[in-house]
Amino acid sequence: DEVREAMRALPYWAQRSWLASPYDFHWNDDVFPGVHSSGPVWKASDEASDLLPLASFLEEAFPAIRAELDSVLAEEGLFDSLHFESLNAEGQDHKPEEAWRQVELADTREDERWKARTCGHFRNTCALLRSRPELESCDHASAMIVRMSPGAWLKPHYGGPPRLVAHLGLRDGPGAMLYVGNRSLRWQEGRSHVFDDTYVHSARHLGRVGAADRYILHVLFCHPCEASQRGLYDSRVSCQASPMQASPETAEPARVPEARGSAPGRCGEADAQATRFSLGGGGHTLPSCQVACLEQENCNFMTYYAHTGFCHMYQTCGHIRPAPDGGQVHGRAALLAELQGG
């Protein structure tokens, strides 16, 4: 509470009247202030909603996805084998280690966007997901099948913006719970829920030893307010900042001068040729992002978000979002000067 009150004394946080509890804090608000300010859950599994097309699509696809999961589980040890084949790091976000297993289907941040080995066993699942623009037109989407066994604890953590997460219940595990902000959710077979994982969130399987494992399809997809996604949603998803939350620095994207070659001199020109790409994941330093941009032939501008370590790179600045968190926009010429000491 002391930390929260100290934050609210600062101009940036003073405008966020909704910050009544630590559970209200979320990183997506830094990118899209005031959007869906009602809380961390966009759709619960016991709710019927057509607000998010992906949620109803997953529920309709449940029989096909469940059938492929059952087929994999019928072959002893195959799910664990696929888990270890797709594992690229040993995380410390859950315990005990063996109570959490995930089989990666896709990660659009990587060269192999759709994983050939696992999609060979989940052929229909991958084909269904590839048909969705929430993933295919998103450069930071992912999908996986996740097993949580009794006793498992996924520790509290935050996701990096901008994004949302959809879960489809595949096999029920009595006692399995998801906690997002101040909400508690249960998974249901054949039902989906969508939440903002940039709120603090965690999960536990409170079932007794020997109880059923819980299996879900976990889909991380682009936030509805990202430029590539706006056409998928109707006016009920408003991407306008609330007047009480907007601040001068969120009103207009930062402008940078022409950097080189064909890059336009003003943001917003040549939008048809604009492309955006990311340095995967967060936790990057500004120098590492600068070097990455300079190594990319089509990186003329770069936005760096200091609080998450994310950096987004652009051929033109037509897709640059406002940076209310103090994100810094750099032109290519400026990057060279900074790395060379001015």
TrEMBL record:
One of its GO terms (molecular function) is dioxygenase activity. Residues 59-224 form the Aspartyl/asparaginy/proline hydroxylase domain. Pfam families: Asp_Arg_Hydrox. GO terms for cellular component: membrane. Residues 244-267 are annotated as: Disordered. InterPro entries: Asp/Arg/Pro-Hydrxlase, Asp/Asn_beta-hydroxylase, IPNS-like_sf. Keywords: Dioxygenase, Oxidoreductase. The keyword Zinc-finger does not apply. Gene3D superfamilies: B-lactam Antibiotic, Isopenicillin N Synthase, Chain, Hepatocyte Growth Factor. Belongs to the aspartyl/asparaginyl beta-hydroxylase family. This is Aspartyl/asparaginy/proline hydroxylase domain-containing protein. It comes from Alexandrium monilatum.
